[in-house]
Write a structure and sequence with these properties.
Strand content: 25-35%
Helix content: 10-25%
Radius of gyration: 28 Å
Number of helices: 1
Distance between the termini: 94 Å
Number of strands: 14
Shape: elongated
Order of helices and strands: HEEEEEEEEEEEEEE
C-alpha cells in the first residue's frame, strides 16, 4: 500500500512538471518575440524616422547652439517656410540673368559639408533682401523673423528680386551675419535632393529640450 501510494504521488507530480516546463518555454518564447519586435521597431525608427544629428558651429544661433543634439526626420511632406533642414552641400546652384539654374562645382571651397539652415522660400516664390532696411521680403511681404539673432546685413550673390525655381529652396541661418547660406555663391539655392531631412526636436542638452516645429511664427506669412 505504501509503495502504491508513493507511485501514485510520483505519477501525480509528473504532469504538473511537464505543464510548468511548457508554460516556461511558452513565456520565454513570448519574451524573445517581444524583445525582437521592440529592437526591430527601435532600429526602424532610428533608421527611417529619427536620426540623431550633432550641431557644429553657430550659424543657427539663437535657435540652435554649437554642440546641441537634435533629431532629424526623413519622413515628411514637402518642406515649407520655417523648416530647419539638414543639407548635403555637394553642389552650389545659382541663377543666370534669365533665372535659369547654373550648377557650380564647389570642390576645394571648404563648404562641401553637411550644413543646417532654415527654409525661407520655396519654388515659385519671389525673394528680395532690402539692403537699406535689412529686411527679407518674400512674395512682397516682409518676413516677421523672431528667430534671427540680428537683422540681415548683406544680400550676397544674387541680384534681387529672384524667383525660386520649382524643386529648389532659399535657405538662411538664423545667425544672419555669421552664416554661410543661400546668399553665398558656394552654397546658393538648395536642391530638394540635397536635403537629408528636417530637424524636429532638440534633445540635448536636456535643459534646453525643445520641439523645433514651433521655432518660428508665420504672422506676416499666413498665406505662404
Amino acid at each position: 500500500m505504501e509503495e502504491n501510494t508513493v507511485e501514485n504521488t510520483e505519477s501525480g507530480n509528473t504532469e504538473p512538471e511537464e505543464q510548468q516546463n511548457k508554460k516556461f518555454l511558452s513565456d520565454l518564447i513570448e519574451i524573445v518575440e517581444s524583445t525582437f519586435i521592440t529592437v526591430f521597431v527601435i532600429i526602424m525608427i532610428f533608421t527611417y524616422i529619427l536620426h540623431p544629428v550633432n550641431v557644429v558651429g553657430t550659424s543657427m544661433t539663437n535657435t540652435l547652439q554649437d554642440g546641441d543634439r537634435i533629431f532629424m526626420t526623413t519622413v515628411h511632406g514637402d518642406y515649407k517656410y520655417g523648416d530647419i533642414v539638414i543639407i548635403n552641400n555637394d553642389m552650389a546652384y545659382l541663377l543666370d540673368e534669365d533665372n535659369n539654374i547654373i550648377e557650380k562645382n564647389i570642390d576645394g571651397s571648404g563648404l562641401k559639408e553637411c550644413i543646417i539652415k532654415r527654409v525661407i522660400a520655396t519654388g515659385g516664390q519671389t525673394v528680395e533682401i532690402n539692403s537699406d532696411t535689412k529686411e527679407v521680403i518674400v512674395d512682397g511681404k516682409v518676413l516677421d523673423e523672431p528667430y534671427i539673432k540680428e537683422l540681415t546685413n548683406g544680400s550676397g550673390c544674387f541680384d534681387y528680386p529672384i524667383i525660386i525655381p520649382e524643386g529648389y529652396y532659399f535657405c538662411m541661418g538664423d545667425n544672419r551675419n555669421g552664416s554661410s547660406d543661400s546668399r553665398n555663391s558656394d552654397i546658393g539655392l538648395i536642391k530638394k535632393s540635397q536635403i537629408y531631412g528636417k530637424a524636429t526636436v532638440r534633445y540635448a542638452p536636456i535643459s534646453s529640450f525643445k520641439y523645433l516645429g514651433d521655432s518660428y511664427k508665420h504672422n506676416s506669412n499666413e498665406e505662404m
